[in-house]
Design a protein that fits this description.
The structure holds 3 protein chains of 3 kinds. By secondary structure, chain A is an alpha+beta fold. Chain A has 2 helices and 4 strands; from the N terminus they run E-H-E-E-H-E. In chain A, the strands form 2 sheets. Chain A has a two-stranded antiparallel ribbon. A two-stranded antiparallel ribbon of chain A has the order 2-3. Chain A is globular and about 30 Å long. About 9% of the residues of chain A have low confidence. In chain C, helix 2 runs antiparallel to helix 3 and helix 8 packs antiparallel against helix 9. Classes of the chains: A alpha+beta, B alpha/beta, C mainly alpha.
Chain lengths: 78, 460, 245
């Protein structure tokens, strides 16, 4: 985990992916294209910007849709 | 002066050798010999409910950093384990999956009591009652000597005996990775796991686990005896002390394990190793996933993270491999990249596919069949692969390749125009399953080499 | 409710409404189960298009399964409420426990149990982990053929063209799905199990088609399948659709 300057979104959430569990189903990128893109092999590349409000709800839906529970929505600082 | 004649009675431990002081030419230093050399193991207050063991602060002050490649401050690591919930376990990491490194098995083979002292001291400091020692399953001598040392210690009456157990670890590069080792020791495969939780919090059997490199613990054993100030007499402020390095290379007179003062110039090390006749083409520093440094810059290179940083390198696991001008560096780069790709645990898509794509592209560069934008593609692949695995294996591979592209740009351009060169056919100079030249001879602070090195390297 | 209660009573009394409901809900359940299995294969094969993204295929598969369960529960409820055939609630869950066509009803109970298991394990997937879930989800390939056999053996409409046509159509869809799954590329290690699956599916389909004429489509199936004698029509040669049970 890189050191990060305190931001205004100190209590907001962030995305993480468990790369071992991930099997490149790609549902997360469909459900949260604002923060998740797929690399050339179908694996998620996450945008590290903070998640807020509506986007958080979409992120949680994306995490629930993941067949292998690889996508995680965590509070910043976890 | 042969190694056997090195002064043993030199109790002024300020200078080198420190770790390697009294190293026997064959077999292990016995418990009695170890005590004669270093004195009795000191006793520190162990971990108590709210009071930290003083050893931890001592390690903080000493500035000792992990010597397994990660470089994490030792004191902080012990503190984290001591502070975690549950009874801790100490796991000594002697897996040494790095092919060009034999410092850890050298210590285990020749100076096991130094390592075991360190393990015991650390165990008491973190409140552990159990020590597991992971050793590569092909390091038969090391296994035998550690077993012997454990027996010796078991025969001695001790204040509170600690359970110490030897565990064999498969001979794979990735098996030495912290979470992979914990996974294996816990009964699973020797493959990395997703973290958090990190082993210091929840490791073997869900307990806080101190995973410590063999050499790190050896340093702990000496710091406990001689203090933090003593430790800092050598080295540089940001990285104090001495360190073991494994020096190999085709034209070296005396390859092997050496103890250096951190921050000393590499030329001093090469002189101690018998000197080199011609300037190497390049030096691989840190490990197979380290970084290349141009041989022309040799005189200016000093062995500390601080001094190596401008070259994109770090001391890492103390591996130093010289590449001569006889071999084709592009071919070596390709071999190394392919090897690293093959060492992938194959659990994470970006590593599995990314390293494979990188290796293929580097091979194409060697064969001259890569497209015009091959180097761009490599840079793109590097940035897409970095940080997206469960462990740092892909990151290391990417770094090594990036440095190789820079250092060997001339040869790469040559290959792009003319395809493979004559030197591509030559056998590799890199220590993979291939014996290293025998080396003997005098110098301060050198470790096992020669026959031992051959056996160790050939065993992979 | 005040209108419903007498209607239910009256319906129960006439014994026709529940009979119609159980047949219809059963048929719909079979169709939904077929759709769910086909979508399950589309899901695992990761087939998708811009109009049919992965999350839609996955979500639809889950929803169809749940809907199938709902119709299955209605099917069971109405079968139990139907006073004509002595089917108790336990018979719906415990296989071979009923006195009405025990074998064929029992298959239905098995299919229902498997269905429950599939849905429960999917709901608790986070707890049992991905590997555990995958292992149990294979049972879907067992659930479907058993459900089909139950339909053909127990159902009163088996001789009617529409049910036969639907059943054959569902069978074709499932065979197509299995074929897609099996032929999607395999490793040497998987060769045996995949060919085994192919063989099993083909054998099932063939066996079914061979059995139908002498089985449910043959004479006196009601008696042969275990309908209690008291319920059999007096003219035992009856093989008319729908009018007699």
């Amino acid at each position: 985990m890189s050191a990060r300057a305190p931001s205004a979104h100190a209590t907001s959430h962030r995305l993480r992916v468990n790369p071992i569990a991930c099997e490149a189903h790609g549902m997360c990128a469909e459900l949260l294209p604002e923060r998740i893109a797929l690399d050339e092999w179908g694996y998620p590349v996450l945008d590290d910007q903070p998640l807020s409000g509506k986007l958080l709800a979409h992120a949680q839906r994306a995490a629930q849709a993941c067949p292998t529970f690889a996508l995680l929505v965590q509070r910043r600082g976890e | 002066m042969s190694p056997a004649e090195l002064p043993h009675e030199d109790r002024d431990m300020g200078a080198l050798p420190r770790l390697l002081a009294g190293i026997p030419t064959s077999g292990a230093l016995s418990l009695a010999g170890h005590r004669a050399q270093h004195g009795e193991m000191p006793v520190f207050e162990g971990r108590k409910r709210r009071v930290e063991s003083p050893l931890i602060e001592l390690l903080d002050t000493s500035g000792l950093r992990g010597r397994g490649g990660g470089g994490f401050p030792a004191g902080a690591k012990l503190r984290a384990v001591a502070g975690a919930r549950g009874r801790a376990i100490v796991l000594v990491n002697g897996a040494e999956g790095e092919p060009a490194s034999f410092k850890d098995r050298t210590l285990l083979q020749a100076l096991p009591h130094l390592v075991l002292d360190g393990a015991e001291l650390a165990a008491r400091a973190v409140g552990a009652e159990e020590i597991m020692i992971g050793v590569c399953d092909t390091a038969s001598e090391a296994l035998a000597e550690v077993r012997g040392a454990l027996d010796e210690r078991a025969r001695e009456p001790s204040r509170e005996p600690l359970r110490a157990r030897l565990v064999t670890v498969p001979n794979r590069y990735i098996a030495g990775q912290e979470s992979a080792l914990v996974n294996h020791v816990g009964g699973g495969p020797a493959l990395p796991t997703f973290t958090p939780p990190l082993p210091f919090e929840r490791g073997v059997r869900e307990r806080p686990t101190l995973v410590a490199n063999v050499e790190t613990l050896a340093h702990v054993a000496l710091i406990a005896r001689h203090g933090a100030d003593w430790f800092r007499e050598l080295g540089v402020a940001s990285q104090p002390g001495s360190a073991l390095v494994t020096l190999t290379g085709a034209e070296l007179g005396y390859p092997g394990v050496y103890e250096i003062e951190i921050g000393s110039p590499i030329s001093a090390l090469l002189d101690a190793a018998g000197g080199i006749e011609t300037q190497p083409r390049a030096i691989l520093v840190g490990g197979y996933a380290g970084a290349w440094v141009d041989g022309a810059l040799l005189r200016g290179v000093a062995l500390s993270d601080e001094h190596l940083a401008p070259y994109g390198a770090s001391l890492g696991a103390g591996v130093i491999v010289l590449l001569s001008t006889e071999t084709c560096p592009v071919a070596e780069l390709a071999r190394l990249t392919c090897w690293l790709a093959a060492q992938s645990a194959r659990q994470c898509g970006p590593c599995l596919f990314g390293l494979d794509a990188i290796a293929t592209t580097v091979e194409q560069l060697m064969l001259g069949s890569a497209g015009r934008d091959a180097q761009q593609r490599l840079a793109g692949l590097g940035s897409v692969v970095r940080g997206r695995g469960a462990c740092s294996h892909p990151d290391g591979a990417v770094r090594m390749v990036a440095s190789g592209l820079e250092v060997f740009s001339d040869e790469l351009a040559d290959h792009a125009h003319h395809g493979p060169c004559a030197a591509c056919e030559r056998p590799s100079e890199l220590p993979r399953p291939r014996p290293v030249a025998k080396g003997t001879g005098p110098s301060a602070g050198r470790g096992r080499s020669g026959a031992a090195a051959r056996e160790l390297v050939g065993a992979r | 409710m005040s209108v419903l209660a007498p209607t239910l009573a009256a319906a129960g009394g006439s014994t026709k409404l529940y009979w119609y409901l159980t047949r219809s809900t059963g048929t719909v359940a079979l169709l939904l189960l077929t759709g769910s299995l086909v979508l399950g294969v589309v899901d695992v094969q990761r087939l998708s298009s811009p109009r049919w993204p992965r999350f839609v295929v996955d979500g639809l598969h889950r929803n169809l399964s749940l809907l199938a369960l709902v119709f299955l529960l209605l099917h069971i409820l109405t079968a139990v409420l139907d006073s004509f055939a002595p089917i108790s609630l336990t018979a719906a869950i415990v296989p071979f426990d009923s006195s009405y066509r025990p074998l064929w009803l029992g298959l239905g109970a098995i299919a229902f149990d498997l269905m429950l298991g599939l849905i429960l394990t999917s709901a608790l997937r986070r707890r049992i982990g991905h590997a555990g879930w995958r292992a149990t989800h294979w049972l879907a390939y067992a659930c479907w053929p058993i459900a089909l056999l139950h339909t053909l053996g127990t159902g009163s409409d088996v001789k009617s063209a529409w049910l036969l046509a639907l059943s054959i159509a569902c069978l074709a869809l499932v065979l197509g799905a299995v074929l897609t799954r099996v032929l999607s590329g395999w490793s040497a290690a998987e060769l045996r199990s995949r060919l085994g699956a192919l063989g099993g599916a083909a054998a099932f389909a063939l066996g079914l088609l061979l059995w139908l004429p002498s089985g449910p489509l043959g004479s006196e199936w009601a008696r042969r399948s275990g309908t209690p004698t008291s319920l059999l029509p007096h003219n035992s040669a009856g093989s008319q659709t729908g009018s007699a049970r």
